[in-house]
């Protein structure tokens, strides 16, 4: 069912659609630099995050390259849970600077440590380079916390492509005795690279993220003829030991149905799942905080409760 846009977003969407039509009429085509620049422009809507006692830059060094990270803690002398934050952006865009305010708000609302990860992006670094970076951080994050107190509760969090990374890592580490992911938080996650659910078409035009752009992202991400279904988290191995999961979906999002389907699969396996759908919201609404502040504030509130919940 096609979503009905919130009046809060009507003007923004109208302007975005006019700009998109003008670009098409002028023969503008997607390029990595163009879509990255467009995401950068949304930073004006995100606003500033709260001041925190501890915010530092660091890197994890692999054999071939460095993975930049930014570490946040509201109280570095207090033993807190750790959230590893994998940003969204279609596996091609985004960075820890654009998502800084979001990382800060998560750290404050969840009273937790947040490690934001600057994983490698396509097309320069196609699948599975970014996944490998995120796995490396999952395996070595404790080495980053030598001056910060933390406990053993490990949570992974991501929006859109970041949600795809979380769900992929959750499946890949099901039987890894060295890694225990306690919870995962998924914000309008991308979990079906085969693009097989109705909302892909029903909400595929006119709501900022369009089906044509999703397909374009995936073509640049998967450059070695990977079978789309088998690399989709929704169709990866899962069992009852999957992490407790919090899922947010948006009513006007092309990815809405796959996020809901992922939650259903987990529930059928006996995994504890909490779900919230924001009718009238679009994909990436968390980047539009100044336009939909009530919805963003509610999302952070729910994230905070989920992180703090001991069950």
TrEMBL record:
Pfam families: Abhydrolase_3
Name of the protein: Alpha/beta hydrolase
Domain Alpha/beta hydrolase fold-3 stretches: 83-286
Keyword annotations: Hydrolase
GO molecular function: hydrolase activity
Source organism per UniProt: Colwellia maritima
